[in-house]
């Protein structure tokens, strides 16, 4: 469990770094040097996320999709029953995020940009934001909801990664919002300057 959790945490850190580089570069020019690493970080996020999923499927779910979605065999009932509804939903979110992440990693090449075209490629890779929020929900469930008294036993100690997870997630969201506001203000300033130049030109003529 520690192995697949550490791999999952590593993939999360790479995803956060991938999505933080762009906004940070808009707000702080020296950070633009890191943009060349954004593609590699995104690819390694997808690779580690796939390893994380394989370790869970092989080490815990035993390649059973019903168990992965929260169903367990109950001897008293003589059939499978859903034991943890949120568990299955969280795993479904993780699977969707993984599929999207692998698609983005597979098209993170110059050849893919040429074949798809810049506009189509950019539209496809805008899904990185969707992956980001799906991963936050997936990880947040396990950090804050899954290991509770509903397990009918004493839950383990709170995960140490809770606070870093919240801070890092908020940091990325904050950078994205700040970069958005910064871009809007720059465009307004550019339009105002353009209007002023045209007015001045007409007055001079």
Can you describe what's shown?
- The protein is mainly alpha-helical.
- The protein has one domain (2-204).
- The protein has 8 helices and 2 strands; from the N terminus they run αααββααααα.
- Strands 1-2 form a two-stranded antiparallel ribbon.
- A hairpin with a 4-residue loop joins strand 1 (71-74) and strand 2 (79-82).
- The longest helix has 43 residues, at 162-204.
Number of strands: 2
Distance between the terminal alpha carbons, to the nearest Å?
76 Å
From the spread of the alpha carbons, the general shape counts as: elongated
Strand order of the largest sheet: 1-2
Number of helices: 8
Q: What percentage of residues falls in helices of 4 or more residues?
A: over 70%
Structural class: mainly alpha
Q: Average pLDDT value?
A: 89
* Poorly predicted regions: none
Strand content range: under 5%
Overall structural domain count = 1
Largest sheet: 2 strands, antiparallel
Measured on Cα atoms, how large is the radius of gyration? Answer: 23 Å
Give the ordered list of helices and strands. HHHEEHHHHH
Give a concise summary.
With 205 residues, this protein is mainly alpha-helical. The chain has helices at residues 2-27, 38-61, 65-68, 85-106, 110-116, 118-125, 128-144, 162-204; strands at residues 71-74, 79-82. The protein has a two-stranded antiparallel sheet.
């Amino acid at each position: 469990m520690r192995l697949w959790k550490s791999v999952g945490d590593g993939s999360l850190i790479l995803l956060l770094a991938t999505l933080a580089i762009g906004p940070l570069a808009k707000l702080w020019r020296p950070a633009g040097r890191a943009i060349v690493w954004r593609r590699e970080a995104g690819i390694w996020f997808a690779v580690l996320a796939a390893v994380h999923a394989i370790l869970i499927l092989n080490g815990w779910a035993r390649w059973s999709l019903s168990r992965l979605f929260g169903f367990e065999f109950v001897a008293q009932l003589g059939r499978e029953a859903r034991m943890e509804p949120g568990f299955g939903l969280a795993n479904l979110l993780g699977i969707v995020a993984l599929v999207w992440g692998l698609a983005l990693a597979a098209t993170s090449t110059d050849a893919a940009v040429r074949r798809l075209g810049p506009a189509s490629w950019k539209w496809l890779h805008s899904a990185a934001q969707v992956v980001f929020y799906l991963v936050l929900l997936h990880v947040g469930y396990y950090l804050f909801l899954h290991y509770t008294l509903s397990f009918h036993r004493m839950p383990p100690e709170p995960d140490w990664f809770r606070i870093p997870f919240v801070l890092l997630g908020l940091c990325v969201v904050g950078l994205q919002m700040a970069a958005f506001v910064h871009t809007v203000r720059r465009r307004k300033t550019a339009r105002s300057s353009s209007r002023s130049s045209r007015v001045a030109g007409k007055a001079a003529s």
